[in-house]
Amino acid sequence: MTELKIMYGHVGQSAIFIAWTRRMESRRPDALFQDPFAEAMLDILADDPTVANVATAIGQSMEGDGNFPEYFAVRTRFLDDGIEEALRKGVRQVVSLGAGFDGRTLRLACPEGTDWYEVDLPDVVEPKAALVTQSSLPPTCTRHDVAADLSGDWQPALMTAGFDPDRPTVWLLVGLVFYLTENAVEELVKTMTALSAPGSAILLEHLSLGMLGEPGRDLRAVNKTYGIEWFSAHDDMVPWLAGHGWTAEVFAHDDPQIGHGRAVGQNPKMWLATGVLATSEPAGAPTAL
Asked: What are phi and psi of 121, to 5 degrees?
């Protein structure tokens, strides 16, 4: 327990925040999903003062906008649905870039033969693996922990873990790209595309450009108190992804089409994209790594 606490830092605050919102959702009678790992994680860390601090922060957020946590439930369901659709179509390889403390490898029903690679920094991968073990929850797929810095050269670590670029892949990028610089995001997506076989799919969350301007000023100030900072954003999501070789459909974070009847808070303004690898490469795109 002590070792786990030491490893968390600001990454832990964010992870506990998301786990708390997922536990809140799981306990609702009309829950959009069930997340037993979030419950187990918070039980294991119940004595950690960070948990109490995060609970206070969530309470304060809801005082300002009672619909604020709803986005995390809608986002989770949107991504769950996209992954499950790809699995139904025969994809058996999933890569979560910036996986954090996500519990999908312990709760989504994966067909036999599904390999799931969770890529994140070593200081995240190690305590996550310990929590998975302590939770005693059985994996629903073959899990692969991959320690790598996604702002650098992460492909070798993924390949060493067993990733096969000749198999179709569903890529999951959530709570990630807006914490990277624009250049780092471009390189990340280029690498991901070059590693994608025909039939691959993408599920991506990105920040609306206005959140880096005046509309997002108050939220950015709150983020900084937790050691969190946004570095990139995008609005022209469909043409941007098309330029990288993906045919995408994009929804605003509060679009009723994906909301399942939930009233989602106005901020932070986000985009949720789902797409498939185009049949032809965009001009100048790499064909292999």
From this structure: -65, 150
Helix (H, G, I), strand (E, B), or coil: what is residue 247?
strand
Distance CA(164)–CA(91), nearest Å, equals: 12
Compute CA 254 distance to the chain's CA centroid, rounded to the nearest angstrom.
18
DSSP string, 100-134: TT--GGGTS---TT-EEEEEE-HHHHHHHHHHHHH
Q: Under 8 Å CB-to-CB from 225, ≥6 apart: which residues? A: none
Q: Which tokens belong to 60? A: 């304060």
| Alpha-carbon span 42 to 20, nearest angstrom | 7
- Which residue type sits at 208? S
Strands 201-207 and 270-277: antiparallel
pLDDT in tens, 116-150: 999 999 989 999 999 999 999 999 999 999 999 99
Q: Residue 89: left (phi > 0), alpha (psi -120 to 50), or beta?
A: alpha
Contact 83, 203 (CB under 8 A): yes
User: Taking Cα atoms as reference points, which of 239, 252, 244 lies closest to residue 206?
Assistant: 252
Q: Which residue has tokens 């909301």?
A: 259
Does pTM top 0.85 for this prediction?
Answer: yes
Q: Which residues of 216-236 are buried (b: 16+ CB within 10 A; e: fewer)?
A: beebeeeeeeeebebbbbbee
CA–CA dist 274, 268 (Å, integer): 19
Give Cα 59 distance to the centre of its chain. Answer: 23
| Three-state DSSP class for residue 251 | strand
Query: Is the torsion defined by CA of 100, 273, 180, 196 positive or negative?
Result: positive
